[in-house]
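Fig. S4 source data, part A: sequence.
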Amino acid sequence: MTLTVGVEEEFLLVDPASGRPIRAAGAVLGRATSLESGHLHTELMNTQVEAATGVCAGLAELGGQLTRARTCLDAAARAEGLLLLSTGTPVLDGAPPGLAEGERFAEIGLRYAGIAADFQVSGCHVHVGVPDRETAVAVMDHVRPWLPTLLALSGNSVFWAGRDTGYASWRTVCQSRFPGSGLPPRFGSAADYDAEVARLVDCGVLVDPEMTFWLLRPSPRYPTLEFRVADAVPTAADALLQAALSRALVHTGLSEVEADRPAPALGGQVAAAALWSAARYGMRGLAVHPIYEERLPATDLLTELLNWVRPALAELGDLELVRRLLELLCARGIGADRQRAAAAGGPDAVLDLLSAEVVRSDEPVLI
């Protein structure tokens, strides 16, 4: 079974002199060359840009597209005298960001007011192809316990307004202010999912059925299951690891559905605690097991995830690549660890690190 995969990455534009976000999305996208595969977009804030890969059959193809899109946007930003950064939150604050142009963005600004006004956060979203929406919802129920572990691996948003928040993913905290955020509930069918979304729209907390804040959902636009849990990660290799693990989770979830195994039931408060712990500590310290409702080292939970998806990784031909990607991550630390290590040299050192990691020339797994 071959599952397609694609990635959307959000980036921040900053002034190299002050290190503060700059409203320059239109200018940077105007300079960017077109991609053979994938698209470049505006994001919610005009201090951000997004790169979306095309639909990829394998990780080698995906890695190449991630690298090319990053290279393209980085060159366009530098031509505007700016830095392109892949970080979940800005290191330093600046003038209030403005919403990108468009009626829908304007409605989002009106609906969510102050929550949206400074929602200057960036994520790495992974789309995995599924046969249909019914299957997507069934698989989602099996996959959702592992979202905190994906978050812990991706934590890359330490700073807010120039201060260390103490969190690996402050972006997750910012996102939790929106209604209906976090791990999705357990749904029995696509009809149940649609009914819940429609109820939230009727209650006035969602702008439309295409807007949900859950960290995993059937895409409203594509025949995919969309993972929205990860912070914007420093390197293309980090993004590729998220894609590989997400695809393996879907593959394993499909096997569970086909075998008619019931999805695990999660207590809502413990699931929220698992997500909070992942955001707070990343891969350092203790995590919360969403199913067994106990504390354990985050590394043990990662090992459990890898054991669950190992057959899928082997069948997809991704096992060796994931091993190498994890070795890279262990050697470098997650993005939050890298940012904190650089912070000993001051904010400029963090900005230099993030700028250098957008496009690296020493990523052997991507060549």
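Fig. S4 source data, part B ends here. The first helix runs from residue 25 to 31.
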